[in-house]
């Protein structure tokens, strides 16, 4: 078939980062195959890209066993709806974007229905349960990985795999110069800026933002010259933020839909772990990575995770280049102290910046969304090679 065939691709993205990855991939697909149709589960980015979003994933982007159990009913409804779409509409390809356990179940169902499955963003098998490679291999037709070191885990088990590049390398580019951003955001270029990135999930906002705001208050008391900026994730509503910011002791500049411009203004950032920490690394801004889960979820995770870090910059570097404050270590005092170190200790700050530049170099030149579009079209046309050398 030619690229003008009317293909239907079902996307399943359960989190904010997956919503963005799917949107970028679909935009690239449309350039190569204008007649292609996209349907599925996702959020505002996928809608803006022209995908027919049948289920809004804003309410199910949770992490941790306790959190998942609380949202089990809604997650189950989403899964059943997508299964029904597969059974009724028989899409030409299912693209599962991260959201591991949910998408594994969906992939199994699709495979049984004769639908090809492309899994985008590998489960972190290198961090926990490496035996899952075989499990995923049975449910998919191709695994697209975003870190170069991931391919070997799948090659060992003869699971079709391709390194496509990390999508963040392409998209992490400010729209304006730093000086233009200071003016646009009403910031004083002669005063330091601290970034506050509390996450893109509702439970992260509840657990982490109060600690960050308390740390900001401590910082402001010691350094009245500091300014604070908070890039608001699309998946977080104004009401969710307002609930916490109403009692903030310091002024916070809220920035919408311009996260990279906001981050490039910062001299130091406090951020949740996840994609955000990698994006900050790509922009070369010193940071401290934080996270807090429900107690039982953390207890269970400690027994399953096989690596010493949770922050992507540290995982890629293979060493602690950025401080992590996890669970009970995440206090306003510890967070404020680390931000002050990053602002005041010139040698410490430069070592951090140099290490982040090395991480950026490791990730290469990007092209992730274009590579994913090409891979999807190969699968749709039955031309997929097993593994790029």
TrEMBL record:
<dbReference type="GO" id="GO:0008915">
    <property type="term" value="F:lipid-A-disaccharide synthase activity"/>
</dbReference>
<dbReference type="Pfam" id="PF02684">
    <property type="entry name" value="LpxB"/>
</dbReference>
<keyword id="KW-0444">Lipid biosynthesis</keyword>
<keyword id="KW-0441">Lipid A biosynthesis</keyword>
<comment type="function">
    <text>Condensation of UDP-2,3-diacylglucosamine and 2,3-diacylglucosamine-1-phosphate to form lipid A disaccharide, a precursor of lipid A, a phosphorylated glycolipid that anchors the lipopolysaccharide to the outer membrane of the cell.</text>
</comment>
<protein>
    <recommendedName>
        <fullName>Lipid-A-disaccharide synthase</fullName>
        <ecNumber>2.4.1.182</ecNumber>
    </recommendedName>
</protein>
<dbReference type="InterPro" id="IPR003835">
    <property type="entry name" value="Glyco_trans_19"/>
</dbReference>
<keyword id="KW-0328">Glycosyltransferase</keyword>
<keyword id="KW-0443">Lipid metabolism</keyword>
<comment type="pathway">
    <text>Bacterial outer membrane biogenesis; LPS lipid A biosynthesis.</text>
</comment>
<keyword id="KW-0808">Transferase</keyword>
<comment type="similarity">
    <text>Belongs to the LpxB family.</text>
</comment>
């Amino acid at each position: 078939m030619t690229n003008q065939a009317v293909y239907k691709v079902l996307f399943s993205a359960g989190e904010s980062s997956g919503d963005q990855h799917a949107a970028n991939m679909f935009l690239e697909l449309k350039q190569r195959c204008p007649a292609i149709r996209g349907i599925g589960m996702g959020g505002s980015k996928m809608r803006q890209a022209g995908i027919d979003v049948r289920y809004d994933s804003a309410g199910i982007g949770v992490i941790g066993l306790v959190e998942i159990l609380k949202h089990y009913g809604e997650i189950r409804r989403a899964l059943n709806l997508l299964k029904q779409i597969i059974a009724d509409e028989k899409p030409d390809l299912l693209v599962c974007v991260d959201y591991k356990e949910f998408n594994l179940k969906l992939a199994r169902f699709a495979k049984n229905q004769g639908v090809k499955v492309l899994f985008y963003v590998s489960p972190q098998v290198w961090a926990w349960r490496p035996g899952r490679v075989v499990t995923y291999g049975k449910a998919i037709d191709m695994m697209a990985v975003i870190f170069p070191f991931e391919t070997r885990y799948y090659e060992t088990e003869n699971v079709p795999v391709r390194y496509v590049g990390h999508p963040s390398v392409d998209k992490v580019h400010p729209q304006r110069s730093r000086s233009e951003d200071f003016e646009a955001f009403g910031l004083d270029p002669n005063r330091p800026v601290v970034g506050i990135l509390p996450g893109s999930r509702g439970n992260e906002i509840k657990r982490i933002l109060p600690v960050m705001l308390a740390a900001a208050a401590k910082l402001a008391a010691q350094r009245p010259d500091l300014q604070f900026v908070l890039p608001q994730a699309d998946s977080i509503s104004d009401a969710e933020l307002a609930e916490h910011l109403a009692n903030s002791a310091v002024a916070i500049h809220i920035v919408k839909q311009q996260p990279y411009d906001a981050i490039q203004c910062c001299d130091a950032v406090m951020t949740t772990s996840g994609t955000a920490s990698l994006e900050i690394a790509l922009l070369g801004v010193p940071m401290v990575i934080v996270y807090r889960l429900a107690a039982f979820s953390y207890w269970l995770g400690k027994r399953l995770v096989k690596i010493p870090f949770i922050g992507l910059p540290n995982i890629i570097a293979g060493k602690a280049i950025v401080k992590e404050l996890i669970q009970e270590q995440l206090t306003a005092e510890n967070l404020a102290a680390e931000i002050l170190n990053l602002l005041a200790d010139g040698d410490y700050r430069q070592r951090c910046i140099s290490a982040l530049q090395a991480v950026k170099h490791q990730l290469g030149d990007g092209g992730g969304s274009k590579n994913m579009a090409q891979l999807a079209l190969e699968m749709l046309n039955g031309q997929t090679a097993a593994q790029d050398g």
